[in-house]
Design a protein that fits this description.
Length: 420
């Protein structure tokens, strides 16, 4: 029973990542190496050290696949979109398991292409999750063999000894790729659990003094009525400010823990009412003042339901509300009712949640970077904080999030989700 549970926790339920370490530099480096490598190796195997079979058209097609990683919009986006992950997976399925298997069969499994196929197998396991790599390699080799049997050039049959020798070498490469892939996946999982556990301990340690501060704030506020005049009023203000500070700190702790949880597998999605979600999140938000609370106006033109994690989307609403309110605070005038307008509506099979603020806005350079992880404008607007988290959550529900903004003209964040 314990062995079965361990296999389920550490192998079957761990994250399936189409792109491992999807940094812009890494994806571009893969694109450049694929685009340049195939023409170079064509020259090597066709002109310098000729092999039985080479195909310029296929080499140029593989190079074009590498070029597509550099020119298709959104492929190098960080974090990657679902579409980018599909494009990446498709490109490397073609250029690694399919192409190298095809060339292996067309060259009768000679030493050059045996070594090349083994290297491609290990590279493929290093690029993507081991489960996706195993499925991709099996299907790629099968499709390549069927294509070879149907369209392939005439080649001499491999001897039994060569076939068996090649099978042993390829089985060894596959086994090592599989073992290294599983161990890397579980290592990332353990590191993630350790990080989240450390965050939980830190959150607990922070909440203890915050609870003491909350008690002090209440004591100060209770003491205020016993002091007449300016002293009592000042005590009441101090107690209120301290209480608000504690609420904000607890809110920030909850937000950071929820942001970290995004990296874990989120199971049991549920149907969520967009209107109820927005109303609950805006009512529970720890506003710094009554005027700030009054600046937020919610309008529901038509409710809709979507499938996702309620806690995660609650945090998305919190993040967007916080950013908009900080943008308003950076403006010179005090916030007025309606300065942050949150609209909920649906059209056909798509629902929308739109945040429109009259804050300081952003220029084009900042707008391009706000969804990058760990990027913050740090210029008083607050935009960009937590937006990478928001994008990941929305994309995880098969939705989109986009922004329209200009300096001193506010910002409009639009979330679109499929109606459940």
């Amino acid at each position: 029973m314990r062995l079965r549970q361990k296999a389920s926790d550490e192998v079957l339920q761990s994250l399936v990542e189409p792109i491992l370490h999807p940094s812009q530099w890494r994806i571009r480096a893969l694109g450049v190496s694929t685009m340049l490598g195939h023409p170079v190796f064509y020259a090597v195997w066709a002109l310098w050290l000729p092999q039985p079979y080479e195909n310029l058209f296929l080499r140029l097609l593989m190079a074009l696949c590498g070029l597509s990683l550099l020119v298709i919009p959104g492929v190098t986006a960080s974090p990657p979109t679902r579409g980018a992950a599909i494009i990446f997976s498709g490109i490397f399925w073609i250029t690694l398991p399919w192409f190298f298997s095809w060339m292996y069969f067309c060259n009768s499994g000679n030493a050059v292409w045996l070594a090349s196929l083994g290297a491609a197998l290990l590279i493929y396991y290093h690029l993507t999750d081991w489960r996706l790599a195993t499925l991709g390699w099996a299907t790629g080799m099968l499709v390549a063999w069927l294509a070879f049997e149907t369209f392939g050039p005439p080649t001499p049959d491999m001897s039994l000894e060569r076939s068996l020798t090649n099978m042993v070498v390829l089985a060894f490469c596959w086994f090592m790729g599989l073992i290294l892939g599983i161990s890397s996946s579980n290592l990332r999982r353990e590191q993630l659990h350790f990080t989240l556990g450390t965050m939980g301990i830190m959150a607990h340690e922070l909440r203890t003094p915050l609870a003491t501060m909350q008690l002090i704030a209440e004591a100060v506020r209770n003491e205020a009525p016993q002091h007449a005049g300016e002293s009592g009023e000042r005590l009441l203000q101090l107690g209120t400010r301290l209480n608000t500070l504690v609420r904000n700190m607890n809110h920030q702790i909850d937000m950071q823990i929820t942001n970290a949880r995004l990296m874990r597998h989120v199971g049991n999605p549920e149907r969520i009412s967009a209107a109820a979600l927005v109303r609950h999140a805006t009512e529970a938000y720890p506003y710094r003042s009554t005027r700030e609370r009054q600046a937020v106006v919610v309008r529901v033109y038509g409710d809709f339901q979507f499938v996702g994690s309620r806690d995660m989307f609650h945090q998305v609403i919190d993040n967007l509300t916080k950013n908009a309110l900080r943008s308003l605070a950076a403006a010179s005038s005090s916030p007025q009712p309606g300065d942050l307008l949150i609209e909920v509506g649906a059209h056909g099979q798509r629902g929308r949640i739109v945040f429109t603020d009259n804050g300081i806005g952003m220029d084009a350079d900042l707008r391009k970077r706000i969804f990058q992880p760990f990027f913050s404008t740090d210029r008083g607007t607050g935009h960009g904080l937590g937006l990478a988290f928001c994008q990941r959550v929305v994309h995880g529900a098969h939705g989109t999030i986009r922004v329209k903004t200009a300096p001193h003209q506010g910002a409009v964040f639009t979330i679109e989700l499929p109606v459940a």
